[in-house]
Amino acid sequence: MNFFETIINYIKETYTDRLVYFPSNIRVSLLIILFCAIAVLELYIYIAFRRLHQASQNRELKNWKEHIDNMLANLIIFDESEETDDIVAHFYPKMKKLPLRNSVVNKVLISEMLTYHRNFTGQIQEVLSILYRKLGLDKKSKRKINNKNWEIKIEGIREANEMRITEMADEIIKYTDDENALLRMEAQAAYIKLSEKDPFHFLDRAQERILDWHQVVLFEIITKNKQLTIPPFSKWLRSPNDTVVMLCLKLVDHFMQFDAADEVERLLKHHNPRIVKKSVEIIGKLELSDAEKNMFEVYFDQPEDIKLEILNSIGKISSGNYNDFLASRIYSPDIKVKREAFYAIKRDPNNGEDKLREIYKQTTLENQAIINHVLDNRIKS
């Protein structure tokens, strides 16, 4: 004990009595050492208190989660023969007693209600949605949507989307063209589900890009939502936003919207090669024979992948109007073009395979090998 007292007294005297007698550089060094020692001590104290607070919060979180889970589990197994309003009336007073101003309780209740709502259907979903509103949790979601922090905005949008709070659509539309890609995606996906009047209005105002992976998400939401009224997507094929045009082309393709034929044909002269290629693909799939002439006219100015798609589409249409053109392509120096031309000729429902056998007799060895490949029905084109 005396040893430690001696050390402490020595340090104390160094800083109180002797400090002024040291050279300036040593005084500065000693003060820096003192500052660092105090900072390290404060840091350790802060970490200790932080861990104690987290441990206390985790215990509280666990207890409330267990309590709320039990309450919601009772709701799930409640007599299904009861009317929805009766079930709400039974559970609302109990839930109302929860200390909802407590941030931990609030967080757990919202999280658990969203989880149950996501995993159940029918009456249970309806009851949870009504309780969510009656408890005022929808107002908290609205405040989150209007928060300055984009992560909190997304949290609020997801809550409104899951609980089908349709009145939030007007709040969410503001973020459907936000600079933040994640916020933009969540807002657009939610708006489609929540807007009752015009779920595709966000396409009218979209200036920011709809990223490829975002298009996949929107495509899935639109095509799987049976309650959604599908509009003619041709109205957005003149959008100055290429990504909007691309998304709408995919939807025209999926829903087989023949009334979009003129607009799709017009896109053959679009500046974006991806849009041109998709347009050609749709023309072939919908067998739009009127568009063959335009495809032929743009063919020679296109890169290889679009040329191949044009040949493929002409083969699918099989009108016979461009047989000479297809025959001329079998002498192209590009082997991929040759092969696609042969497949296009084969697709002629009348005598496609006979034509290939006839060509076989008078063409090059390389073309004969390709024809053998094309005529082998075990090989998919």
Describe the structure.
The protein has 381 residues and is an all-alpha fold. Among the domains are: 106-196 and 206-229; 232-317; 320-381, no CATH class. Helix content is 69%, strand content 0%. The protein is built from 20 helices and no strands. The chain has helices spanning 2-18, 24-76, 84-96, 103-119, 123-134, 137-145, 150-162, 169-172, 181-194, 202-205, 212-224, 242-254, 261-266, 273-285, 292-299, 304-317, 323-329, 335-346, 352-360, 365-375. Helix 15 packs antiparallel against helix 16 (304-317) and helix 19 (352-360) runs antiparallel to helix 20. The radius of gyration is 35 Å and the shape is extended. The termini are far apart. The model has no long low-confidence stretch (mean pLDDT 89).
**Helix run count:** 20
Q: How big a fraction of the residues is strand?
A: under 5%
| Rg from Cα | 35 Å
Spell out the helices and strands N to C.
HHHHHHHHHHHHHHHHHHHH
Helix content: 55-70%
Counting copies of identical and different chains, the oligomeric state is single chain
Which term fits the overall shape? extended
Mean pLDDT metric: 89
Largest sheet: none
- Uncertain residue ranges: none
Helix/strand-derived category reads: mainly alpha
Number of strands: 0
| First-last Cα distance | 90 Å
